Amino acid sequence: MHQKNIVIIGSSGHGKVVADILSLMPQYKVAGFIDGFKEKGTVCTGGLTVLGAEQDLPAIMQNLNVCGGIVAIGDNWVRSQVVAKILAIAPSFEFINAVHPSAVISASATIGTGNMISANAVINAYSNIGHHCIINSAACIEHDNQMDDYASVAPRVVTGGNVAIGTFTAVSIGAIVKHGIRIGEHSLIGAGALVLKNVDAFSTWYGVPARKMAERKAGEKYL
């Protein structure tokens, strides 16, 4: 099998998980990490090193025959900013999906690019996942869901059927979302929440049942 040389942008905790997933995908060979916050040559998980920062990508792609990779940054807003920076610096960069072999994905589901789908995650029939999303360990996205670009669901999140999760929205660990619920963009669902009502855009909800607790701004930190 011909392997594609790729890089992982971001070498912190989320990057470690992505590196582990990619080590189980024989079609890819990880050349190293891109991380502007660490010195070039820093040894990271699995013995992979930092090759440089985002601005070094054109040279790295040429010198190491790298075709693309994935942005492994947990914060949805920051991830989007890095993706935009990469597209401006290296327009030919190919964003790939990191999909753990134990994930179960329906043949009728559609998935964009740049996504991480972690161990034991489930994406059920006719669900649509956008670009640069995170579906974490043992999360369950049920049938006919819509997950927009740069959204994320944490470990053991469960959604019912026909749920919509807006752009940049984060659903925290262990939350449960009732069938048919619409969660607006740039919103945050707290850990362990039980979401029984539609969620406004730009808002924070948590509790059992979940209630609106605060307004949010685009890019507001949550990790």
From TrEMBL:
Residues 5-86 form the PglD N-terminal domain. The record marks D144 as: Increases basicity of active site His. GO terms for molecular function: transferase activity. This is Transferase. It comes from Chitinophaga flava. Acetyl-CoA binds at I173. It holds the Pfam family PglD_N. InterPro entries: AcTrfase_PglD-like, PglD_N, Trans_hexapeptide_repeat, Trimer_LpxA-like_sf. Signal peptide: none annotated. Belongs to the transferase hexapeptide repeat family. PANTHER family: ACETYLTRANSFERASE, UDP-N-ACETYLBACILLOSAMINE N-ACETYLTRANSFERASE. Keywords: Transferase. Substrate binds at S12, G13, H14, G74. The active site is at H143 (proton acceptor). It comes from the Bacteria.
